Amino acid sequence: MAVSGMPGEYAPGDVVAVVGATGKQGSATARELLASGARVRALTRDVSSDAALALAAGGAELTAMDLDDAGSIAAAFSGASRVFAMATMADGGPEKETRHGVAIAEAAAEAGVGYLVYSSVGGAERHTHIPHFESKRRVEERIESLGIPATVVRPVFFMDNLLGTQPEDGEIVVRLPVPDGIPIQMVAVRDVGRVSANLLLAPRLVGGAVEIAGDEKTGSEIAGAFARRSGLPARYVALPTDGLPDDPKRMFEWFARLPAYQADFEMTRSLDPEVLDLDAWLAGSWPVDR
Fold first, then answer.
1. How far apart are CA 93 and CA 111, in angstroms?
2. Distance (Å, rounded) from C-alpha 23 to C-alpha 55?
3. What integer pLDDT is reported at residue 5 of this predicted model?
4. Which residues contact 93 (CB under 8 A, 6 or more apart)?
5. Quick check: pTM over 0.85?
6. H or E segment at 62?
7. Most buried of 42, 170, 258, 276 (most Cβ within 10 A)?
8. Cβ proximity of 232 and 170 under 8 Å
9. DSSP reduced 3-state for 196
10. Cis ω before 259 (30° cut-off from 0)
């Protein structure tokens, strides 16, 4: 049963269900919602995990959910007025990701959920032939076909992927399989949560999508940001894509064929006025004393 009509602003007491609430994007969204005073139902496979218990301590209602069980998803969505969701290829590959995402969309429609915010990926609609982009596009298409009031959030490259960067013999070396001189659009996972939470509280772009980013830098510019943060010399090394598994190889080669990501920076700032650029993200997330 698809829901008709346009969702209004969040009303006190409405339940917002967050799929994957102990994952990176889900937990970022749940924390932002809790900070706003929203009633959050945190959906996760293991309600006894440290991450789940931390959300409960912050006021979330914990509910176990299994994405391989349609009945479990339906029960988790019962009584929820809004849902944040995403699926991942990390546990079973792109085909399983699509299956999970479609199951989420169908359960949301059946449960009469009033509004869905679905996190996909930048470029999903542009026929990239990257398996984990195409899998997300299949989910987007199912959401569209069901007529659920929804907004698709399409994040670009995560700044958080750079957390493993470490000093090496007194210098910072940033390594990515992208030629230097190619600008890479990026966003902090925190800001995916902020954008998603703000949409859930005050729906916008219903029936549409937004590609979000907080910064755009070349490899050498990324290294420069690490140098400013650490006070150490820094350089960029462009790694070859040869030898990478097929999916990431296709993604990094796509990065090099501009335009790749095409984020709407203005809309991102409208949805998240405090969106982080790379320097601000490093200041808050990458400790100097390593």
1. 27
2. 11
3. 66
4. 131
5. yes
6. strand 61-64
7. 42
8. yes
9. helix
10. yes
Q: Are 215 and 278 in contact (CB under 8 A)?
A: yes
d(CA 19, CA 85): 5
Answer whether 157's CB lies under 8 Å from 189's CB.
no
Partner residues linked to 44 by β-bridges: 64
CATH number for 15-156+188-213+261-275 (one of 3.40.190.10, 3.40.50.300, 3.40.50.720, 3.30.360.10): it is 3.40.50.720
Q: Give pLDDT tens digits for 47-99.
A: 999 999 999 999 999 999 999 999 999 999 999 999 999 999 888 899 999 99
Cβ count near 15 (within 10 Å): 17
What's phi and psi for 242, nearest 5 deg?
-60, 135
pLDDT tens-digit series, residues 182-211: 999 999 999 999 999 999 999 999 999 999
User: Rounded to 5 degrees, what are φ and ψ at 163?
Assistant: -60, -25
41 DSSP β-pair partners: 17, 61
Low-confidence ranges of the chain (pLDDT < 70): 1-5, 290
pLDDT of res. 3: 45
Name the residue among 178, 161, 174 with its Cα closest to residue 253: 178
Element (H, E) at 138: helix 131-146
Angle, CA 286 vertex, CA 240 and CA 266 arms, to 5°: 80
Rounded to whole angstroms, the Cα distance separating 100 from 142 reads 12
CA distance 115 to 81: 7
Length of the chain: 290
